[in-house]
Amino acid sequence: MTVAYIWFDLGYTLVYLEREAAYREFLLEQGIERSLQAIEKAYHQTDKLFMRQYKGALGKDTDTFYPWYIGILNYSLNVHFDLVRQCRRLREIEAQQKSGWRAFPETLEVLGTLKEQSYGIGLISNWDLTARSVLEENGLLPFFDQIIISSEVGAVKPDEVIFQKALKLAGVSAGQSLYVGDNYYDDVIGSQRVGMESCLINRFGKLGIEEIGSVPTLSSIKELPQLLGASS
Questions:
Q1: Residue 213: its pLDDT value, please?
Q2: pTM over 0.85
Q3: Which residues does the chain have with pLDDT short of 50?
Q4: In this predicted structure, what is the pLDDT of residue 55?
Q5: Which residues are 125's β-sheet partners?
Q6: What's the pLDDT at 2?
């Protein structure tokens, strides 16, 4: 793999929400105990089910899918609640905890390493107009040579248009590019349509992506420099 430019997804590739802590607090209020690891896995599997079965839903406004999502999450943890009340309470807990998007512990280090190794670094993300604020709040803006956000360019992954716009702005070819994301159907399929190499972030091995065949899979971007070194 000869790569000059690395493109990243944003959510759950570079940044995450501490949503599990809020959900666990809600369960404890109901007198129900579930481990944080069990809740993390349930969120992971719910994410992957949505990516596979309800393509594009997670990229829409949260109000269009949140109760539906939480209902599936509840089912996977074998709990059942009034969804209207539960969703309202979860929002309250999240506000109290001030839980916004945060960079994974490895994100700054890996982006810094890639910069030092003279890779071009870009972002292609399905996100609303808050994307640049998320990047700025987490100290990520300086690492990116190009930033392409669906809400700004009027195209969404996996549409080829958003990838083509990114390549044109960066002045690189698809053959020089690697795309890194956590959604096989948006990230891998979309980037491969234009001829990019790709790899998939999946934090629990093959859990939730059992149907997916041969694509390089990493537990986090922390493994990316090693992958690039082994492929050069």
A1: 78
A2: yes
A3: 232
A4: 87
A5: 149
A6: 80
